[in-house]
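Good morning N.,

You mentioned wanting to compare the apo and holo forms, so I went ahead and generated the holo version with 4'-phosphopantetheine. This is what I fed in:
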Amino acid sequence: MRTAVYPGSFDPITLGHVDVLERAAGVFDRVVVAVLVNPRKSPADEVASRVATIRAAVAEELPSLAERIAVEAFDGLTVEACRAVGARHVVRGLRAVSDFEAELQMAHLNRRLAPEIDTVFFMTALEHGYLSSSLVREIARFGGDVSEMVPRAVAAELGAPEGQGRRL
Ligand code: PNS
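and this is what came out, ligand included:
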């Protein structure tokens, strides 16, 4: 069985991530979405709730693939998450050329750390190519409509808007 790990912060998962996940599930028998704990970015309890949201998003957006998609939290290195689940491939999405440099660096470094693990890239669908988790968070925070950018489970969780363009 060919297993791939799709690692990321997924803070939050967007429809761009869902698109990459769907395409990865078309190539691999099992895809493990690995929500990586980054202690500089987010505490572990936030990661646990992110896992629950991603599971809900997978059930909602990709029901026919859900049994072949697992969602788990890991700390430490992506390559160690791969080894833990028996994966030989890392999946990452590329939205634009601007993503390439950082992704190339990570792919090479991961290969240096674990020569048996290779990275496979999927080009994010054009209609989602402009999405980023941090901008989605910002739009939601200021009351913008993100319903076309994220799964419904995420939109419901993004919380109450803080401002509506009022003059301060
Ligand atoms: O969604 P992101 O923030 O672009 O994902 C980045 C992520 C989590 C894949 C990357 O930071 C990562 O792999 N973190 C785990 C620690 C690690 O393996 N670092 C070395 C990467 S070469």
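The CA atoms of residues 3 and 86 lie 7 Å apart.

Happy to go through it together on a call whenever suits you.

Best,
F.
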